[in-house]
From TrEMBL:
<dbReference type="Pfam" id="PF13927">
    <property type="entry name" value="Ig_3"/>
</dbReference>
<dbReference type="InterPro" id="IPR042495">
    <property type="entry name" value="PDGFRL"/>
</dbReference>
<feature type="compositionally biased region" description="Basic residues">
    <location>
        <begin position="37"/>
        <end position="47"/>
    </location>
</feature>
<keyword id="KW-0393">Immunoglobulin domain</keyword>
<dbReference type="InterPro" id="IPR036179">
    <property type="entry name" value="Ig-like_dom_sf"/>
</dbReference>
<keyword id="KW-0325">Glycoprotein</keyword>
<keyword id="KW-0732">Signal</keyword>
<protein>
    <recommendedName>
        <fullName>Platelet-derived growth factor receptor-like protein</fullName>
    </recommendedName>
</protein>
<keyword id="KW-0677">Repeat</keyword>
<feature type="region of interest" description="Disordered">
    <location>
        <begin position="26"/>
        <end position="58"/>
    </location>
</feature>
<comment type="subunit">
    <text>Forms a complex composed of PDGFRL, TNK2 and GRB2.</text>
</comment>
<keyword id="KW-0964">Secreted</keyword>
<dbReference type="InterPro" id="IPR007110">
    <property type="entry name" value="Ig-like_dom"/>
</dbReference>
<dbReference type="InterPro" id="IPR003599">
    <property type="entry name" value="Ig_sub"/>
</dbReference>
<keyword id="KW-1015">Disulfide bond</keyword>
<feature type="signal peptide">
    <location>
        <begin position="1"/>
        <end position="21"/>
    </location>
</feature>
<dbReference type="InterPro" id="IPR013783">
    <property type="entry name" value="Ig-like_fold"/>
</dbReference>
Length: 370
């Protein structure tokens, strides 16, 4: 009997000991989960989804990289400074990629430029870079449906690359003298672009000789564009140039002739006039269509006339710039239709239609016989 009592007491003791151990373990684990004071550093949480886009947009959204030496890669966005003379290799991720680059590389079909599409990326190579290559480079995935492809605007990466050259502080121009038209309804740019954002640039007027103050309000400077006249007026007309300096002898830009434009943007303003409203058979018919417009806006003319496709006609077109005083400049564009040895079929309405990027205007003149 005593033996069973002793065994029972031993078993109860072990049960109580296990229970106490489990309770102590739970208490310890709960205490470990509490926040303890101290100087322990925590890893920052990396944003996901939209948070990543807003907080790390410069790095996470760029699909463009520059290939450096020894197989190193640098993601590009915003702007980047490179030395002229170096070769440029850019890559953009994607199986179908579109590119944009300084327009003159296309205009002159530069053989230094090549683009090759690989399985997972597109490669742009530009050898023997120079200050003239300074400008904007962009790439984007192409969204294709069969043979038709569109630009994926949301994933487009753009970087402005400066190709620095101490001998060329200004991005070279294709001409030695440029004409810039000032309009009261839009900003005008004097394109003194530089090859390094560190270059100091000043704007000068030739006559009377003076430096133009840049206050950031009326006139501001952007190294990627040049001097921006935000509210141009007739007082800004004249010959201007830019002066740049960077730890050495100042350099001068090309000269810019600033002309103030009085004709507002819009469809062509057209007039038409016949050499005579009544002619005899065998006489010549001349009808002149005239457009007054903005200096650099081209105008396309089309004619509808009696005897069309049945009688030969001569059509001549020309344009010129005229100074209307006080620095105001206007472009006169003309189209003249001539019918020689008029016949009965040539009498009727001569309709001229002038078209520019803003729209078109049609006018008519009637020519009858005596």
């Amino acid at each position: 009997m005593k033996f069973w009592i002793i065994v029972t007491l031993i078993v109860l003791g072990e049960v109580l000991q296990n229970a106490l151990c489990q309770q102590h373990k739970r208490t310890k684990e709960a205490g470990d989960n509490r926040i303890r004071p101290g100087n322990k550093r925590m890893k920052p949480r990396v944003p996901k989804g939209k948070d990543r886009e807003s907080g790390f947009s410069g790095k996470s959204q760029s699909i463009m990289t520059r290939v450096l030496d020894k197989g190193r890669f640098l993601k590009l966005s915003g702007s980047y400074i490179s030395n002229s003379g170096e070769s440029l290799e850019l890559r953009c991720k994607g199986s179908q990629i579109g590119w944009a680059y300084p327009v003159y590389l296309d205009t002159f079909k530069d053989s230094r430029l090549s683009i090759k599409q690989h399985d997972k990326y597109s490669q742009l190579l530009l050898s023997g870079t120079s200050a003239a290559d300074t400008g904007e480079f962009s790439c984007w995935p192409l969204l294709c449906d069969g043979s038709e492809c569109t630009k994926d605007v949301d994933k487009t990466t753009t970087t402005y690359i400066y190709f620095t050259d101490k001998e060329e502080l200004f991005v070279p121009s294709t001409s030695y003298f440029e004409i810039i038209y000032l309009r009261p309804d839009r900003p005008s740019i004097i394109p003194c672009r530089v090859t390094s954002p560190a270059v100091k640039v000043a704007l000068h007027m030739e006559v009377p000789p003076q430096e133009i103050p840049v206050d950031g309000d009326q006139i501001s400077f952007d190294p990627k564009e040049g001097f921006i006249m935000h509210k141009p007026g007739p007082e800004h007309r004249g010959v201007f140039y830019c002066k740049a300096s960077l730890r050495g002898t100042p350099q001068m830009s090309v000269k810019y002739q600033l002309l103030y434009v009085e004709v507002p943007s819009g469809p062509p303003s057209v007039t038409i006039e016949a050499s005579s409203s009544r002619v005899m058979g065998g006489d010549n018919i001349n009808v002149t269509c005239t457009v007054l417009g903005e200096p650099e806006v081209e105008v396309d003319f089309t004619w509808t006339y009696p005897g069309q496709d049945q009688r030969p006609v001569i059509i001549k077109e020309a344009w010129r710039l005229i100074n209307r005083g006080m620095g105001h400049t206007t472009r006169i564009s003309q189209s003249v239709i001539t019918v020689e040895d008029a016949e009965t079929i040539d009498f009727g309405n001569y309709v001229c239609t002038a078209k520019n990027l803003q729209g078109q205007t049609s006018v008519a003149a009637r020519v009858d016989s005596y």
